[in-house]
Amino acid sequence: MSALPPEVAAFVHRVARKTRLRRAERADVERELGSHFEEALAAGRTPGDAIAAFGDPKDAARALRSAAIAKRSPLDRALGQAMRSTAYLTGAFVLVYVAFSAYLWLQSPVISVDSLARFRERLAVPQTPDEDAWPLYRKALVGLGQSVGDPDANSDGFKAVSEAPRPGDPQWDAAVRWVDAHRDAIADLRAASRRPVFGFPVGRELDAADEHLLGTGTAEAMRALVAKRDDPRMSPMLGVLLPQLAKLRAAARVLHFDAMLAAEAGDGERAVADLAAMMAISVHVQDGRILIGDLVGIAIRSMARARAIELLEWKPNLLDAVQLERLQRAMASVPSAYERLDMGAERLMWIDLEQRLFTDDGQGNGWFRLDRVSLLPLVSMLESTSGGMLGSGPGGSMAFTDILPVISSPAAALMIADRRETRDMFEEWAKRFEEASALPMREEARIAAIGDELTRTVHAQPIRFLLPRLLMPALSKACFSYAQDRAWATAATTACAASRFHRDTGAWPACAEDLVPRYMTSVPEDPWTGTPVRVAGNEADFRIWSVGRDGVDDRGDLTRHVPEFVGQRELASTTNPNVQIPPGAGPTIDWVWFAPRRNLDRWNYVKRPPT
User: Fold this and answer.
1) Is the pLDDT of residue 509 over 70?
2) Widest CA span of the chain, in angstroms?
3) Residue 547 in 3-state DSSP?
4) Which residues contact residue 76 at a Cβ distance below 8 angstroms, ignoring those fewer than 6 apart?
5) What backbone phi and psi angles, to 5 degrees, belong to 434?
6) Could you say which DSSP state residue 544 is in?
7) Angle, CA 434 vertex, CA 432 and CA 435 arms, to 5°
8) What is the C-alpha separation between 265 and 94, in angstroms, rounded?
9) Degrees to nearest 5, angle at CA 13 with 9 and 15
10) What is the DSSP string of 410-451?
């Protein structure tokens, strides 16, 4: 090669490079071509003639490559073919991946459903100002010191009321003074509860009076929600604020205490009015049927029903016949639909996210898509359920939403279930939980099994069912809460019916059937067995009880009973109130519905610490 003229040497090198052979094979090709041109030059040809006579370099390189490959071993040739095929496939995959990524990137969210408007259609609408409860609630809440920044909400008196003291407790006097100073606001609260329509401005801009109660921050958030409800970067249903729930729960605690205070003063009329108001508030906060509103409503009426039973036991002669009948109606005043799970609002939340997180093929289906715009609603939901762990600081949601879509959008679309499958899955489980919420307490294991089945399903394919795994709430406990709610309704109405029976006859009923049909339309059932509730005793030891979770009849033993826990677990004993049993310890117990002893002994227990 060193003896060849420069133009010939360059030509030889160029042909060898075009063969795209291995380095050793190219060296052999250069040696062979060098020998060929040396012979041509020795024969008297000029370098140009020798190059011209050689022919097209591409054709020559192709022929030389084929000849060199033919000399390789069969295994070598097979490996080479596999590598070439892999390279072609990789290149094709990259092209398709990039094209799919571009397609997803160019798909803007199609907001075809105004979920906020549909949710507002679920809310009751007052036909006249006299039907609208919210203005009166707002006035009452302001009067009770519930405005943002009002120091009265943190006063010793209000804290004492929130502790629900009984006569003789250390907080009793402070609570009494606070309630007496807020009589007008409490009267407004009762008046508001009697109006048929709640009327809270969900998903609307707040007026000045609302802003005074709920705070500037809440008002600004509501204004932003209304102004940007069509912005694909926002999820209006996730942005709906419900500050009224906490405030009305605090107000219900005031009524809860005032009912005790009224009973202590012998004012049965006021006690009934307070408890009826609590029941009405519990229904009002369920307006729109968002799950959290339902749970707050259940909690409020659980307080009301327990307090009603407590007062009937403490002072059996407190209420006259008319008041007893009115109290019984109040304890059963919840519409039956409100005693079961309604996933309508959660469906709207799901639709709201779906149309932002999936493409829309016009046929009800589409790919899961990740870009900075469509991912924000999901990150917002994750932040709300993670306590802010996906913060916007370094490594937080900003970096998460910047980087993840770029590297994973097509992969996510292929691995995560498509729009139709995800929606069908959500709807299937929503219906199953709605049906489960209608089951009685004795079906607790069946209710829990549905929740466990959902957990197994989504964890078996954690990537494919990523959205249901992240976004579907834990509903089995909520379903059991509805069963407890209905059981408390039966317990409270049965206590009222038994009290009416005693007032009319001078004796207590001998069995549950004695209450039908004059005082109840059907025989009250033990929610743990489905059989008539147990009744026994005379004037000194009369009691009505359920056998509790274990199904073992302990004859309504009051020495081991704690009334708020419906016979699910053993807690502190009334005979040794300083004992606190650890979570999960001890057998289940009877749930005593009603045991009039003219005292509050069985209600004065040391509460179980939070678990």
Assistant:
1) yes
2) 141
3) coil
4) none
5) -60, -40
6) E
7) 65
8) 81
9) 115
10) HHHHHHS--HHHHHHHHHHHHHHHHHHTTS-GGGHHHHHHHH
| AA letter at 145 | G
DSSP secondary-structure letter at 113? -
- Tell whether the torsion through CA atoms of 539, 540, 545 and 547 is positive or negative: negative
Burial of 142 by CB count in 10 Å (0-12 exposed, 13-18 middle, 19+ buried)? middle
Q: Closest Cα to residue 488, out of 369, 611, 331?
A: 331
DSSP-assigned letters across all residues of 215-229: -HHHHHHHHHHHHTT
Share of the chain above pLDDT 70, in %: 87
Please give the distance of CA 120 from its chain centroid, rounded to a whole number.
20
Q: Nearest to residue 493, comparing CAs of 277, 296, 275, 293?
A: 275
**Rounded-to-integer distance, Cα 266 and Cα 41, Å:** 131
First vs last C-alpha separation in the chain: 88
C-alpha to C-alpha distance for 301 and 331, rounded to whole angstroms: 8
CA distance 26 to 17: 7
ω into 196 cis (within 30 of 0): no
Euclidean distance between CA atoms 341 and 478, whole angstroms: 8
Tell me the C-alpha distance between 369 and 351, whole Å: 15
- DSSP sequence for 457-525: HHHHSTTTTHHHHHHS---HHHHHHHHHHHHHHHHHHHHHHHHHHHHHHSS--SSGGGGTTTT-SSPPB
pLDDT for position 379: 52
With vertex at residue 578, the alpha carbon angle to CA 577 and CA 579, rounded to the nearest 5 degrees, is 90
Whether the Cβ atoms of residue 287 and residue 196 lie closer than 8 Å to each other: no
CA distance 83 to 89: 10
Rounded Cα gap, residues 235 and 357, in angstroms:
11
* pLDDT tens column, 287-314: 999 999 999 999 999 999 999 999 999 9
Q: How far is CA 337 from CA 437, 440, 576, in A?
A: 11, 15, 41
| Backbone phi and psi for residue 284, each to the nearest 5 degrees, phi listed first | -60, -40
Read off the pLDDT of residues 21-35 as tens digits, 9 standing for 90 and up. Answer: 888 888 888 888 888
pLDDT for 490 beyond 90? yes
C-alpha 258/C-alpha 252 separation (Å) is 10
* CA distance linking residue 428 with residue 590, whole number of Å: 36
pLDDT bin (cut points 50, 70, 90) of residue 83 is: confident
Closest CA to 512 of 498, 492, 496, 502: 498
Q: The tokens 């050793």 sit on which residue? A: 24
Q: What are phi and psi of 82, to 5 degrees?
A: -65, -40
**Integer Cα distance of 141 and 130 in angstroms:** 18
pLDDT at 70 over 90: no
Query: At CA 430, angle to CA 426 and CA 434, rounded to 5?
Result: 175
Strands 591-594 and 534-536: unpaired
Q: Would you list the DSSP string of 137-167?
A: HHHHHHHTT-STT-GGGGSHHHHHHHT---T
Is-contact 548 568, C-beta < 8 A? yes
Question: Is residue 534 within 8 Å of residue 503, measured between CB atoms?
Answer: no
